[in-house]
Amino acid sequence: MGAQNSIVEYMNVEESQMIITSWTYLKRNLHTCGITLFLTFFGEFPENTKYFKDIVDQKDHVKTDQYLVNHCIKVMRAIGRGVDCIKSQEDFQKYIIEHASIHLEKKITKKTYEEFIGAFSNMLSQELGPRYSNDIGQAWEKFLRYLFYGSLEYTRKLLKDLPGSSMV
User: Fold this and answer.
1) Domain contains 161
2) Which DSSP letter does residue 5 get?
3) What is the per-residue burial (b if ≥16 Cβ within 10 Å, else e) of 74-89?
4) Is residue 4 part of a domain?
5) What is the pLDDT of residue 167?
6) How many domains does the chain have?
7) Phi, psi of 73 (to 5 degrees)
8) Whole-structure pTM value
9) What was the pLDDT predicted at 168?
10) What is the 3-state secondary structure of 102-139?
11) Which residues form the Globin domain (predicted)?
């Protein structure tokens, strides 16, 4: 996906504008949005807690402490950096590489990214309330897929050069 089209070609002007406009609202509530996102993600897909050992206790319960709050805000800010890059392929490509590099060792799967997108969609609907529409939800899903699939492509390229590495 990332290699085939640029983000500028992949997202039409209306979709990009929906993301930018809705992000303007979401970024006012990074704490709430992030907590909602991760509690939804872990609640619907508890198997993904394996990627977050610092957030999950020994019994795989999500710790709702300051570390989780800080991580949620960090993730929401990272998504915001992607929104800031949406109109520039060069900047967005750098953002994809940054995302892939941060997540390289975790070897996150396409399935996990799809589950995260589903949790994000649920959070989006909840947090935007009457401002939410199916078109906004679809634009965000498209945006996140471009980011995550581009990140997976970049990670695969990096890992194929490492002896004994495999990408699930």
Assistant:
1) no
2) S
3) ebbeebeebbebbeeb
4) no
5) 46
6) 1
7) -65, -40
8) 0.83
9) 44
10) HHHHHCCCHHHHHHHHHHHHHHHHHHHHHHCCHHHHHH
11) 10-156
Q: Residue 142: helix, strand or coil by DSSP?
A: helix
What per-residue confidence (pLDDT) applies to 5?
Answer: 66
CA angle, residues 149, 34, 45, in degrees to nearest 5: 60
Q: Over the chain (168 residues), what is each successive 10-residue block's mean pLDDT?
A: 62 94 95 92 88 63 71 92 90 86 76 94 96 97 91 73 52
Q: How far apart are CA 124 and CA 117, in angstroms?
A: 10
Q: Which domain holds residue 93?
A: 11-155
Q: Is residue 91 part of a domain?
A: yes
- For 42, the token pair is 């872990």
Query: 77: domain CATH number?
Result: 1.10.490.10
Query: Is residue 168 one of the residues assigned to a domain?
Result: no
Strand partners, 56: 62
Identify whether the C-beta of residue 86 lies closer than 8 Å to the C-beta of residue 11: yes
